[in-house]
Amino acid sequence: MVTDLPRPLFSRWYRRLSPRMEEVGMAGLRRELLAGARGVVVEVGCGDGLNFGHYPETVTRVVAVEPEPTLRAAAEHAAPEAQVAVEVRAGTAEQLPVESGSADVAVLCLVLCSVRGRAAALGELRRVLRPGGELRFLEHTIAEDRRLRVVQRIADATLWPLLAGGCHTATDPLGDVERAGFAVQRVRRFDFPELAVRVPASPHVLGVAVA
Ligand SMILES: C[S@@+](CC[C@H](N)C(=O)[O-])C[C@H]1O[C@@H](n2cnc3c(N)ncnc32)[C@H](O)[C@@H]1O
Where is the Methyltransferase type domain (predicted)? Predict the structure, then answer.
């Protein structure tokens, strides 16, 4: 079983950039993503643990899976600061180190765009969620605008994945979630950050789907 996907340059860059992103609105989006979550949560690709402080008290336990060693170490450091119990585990989305049917909620936050085996990952999330469990997602998405889609595809074929930890911007998380058999309950599309010029990573989707 593969548990580690080291990306030392990306992890350093992400840790430097993310505080600014939190300030300009990402922290609010994380709160929106996690509001109302309850029970046992599996968070996949938790990074350095930026969601941990936003879990409401109705969450009893978070199992946070992260394959990048530097980010995982930072997440382990952040876990005790959260108001809910957080356990950090090594592993990948494609082979989750989590028991079947053990989770009430699964969380994907800016992760699916970097996962190579998206269908396998979503199959794993269905496996670990109890029937009727929720998948909460906040993800980059392919643009609705045709010109931006072209720009995304050029970015994905050139430097973007190298600079952004394997991220591909022209992915379709909503379609992937539906194809995996989840029923999408609600979804909101928006640009983040709100810039004068849209960039490949601007379009996002935030929503909830049921297993
Ligand atoms: C942009 S970061 C987002 C981190 C965190 N979720 C957040 O919201 O700040 C993308 C994360 O996905 C993780 N990742 C990449 N490929 C993965 C995979 N196959 N399985 C699980 N996580 C993966 C990376 O290690 C990284 O932590």
Answer: 42-136
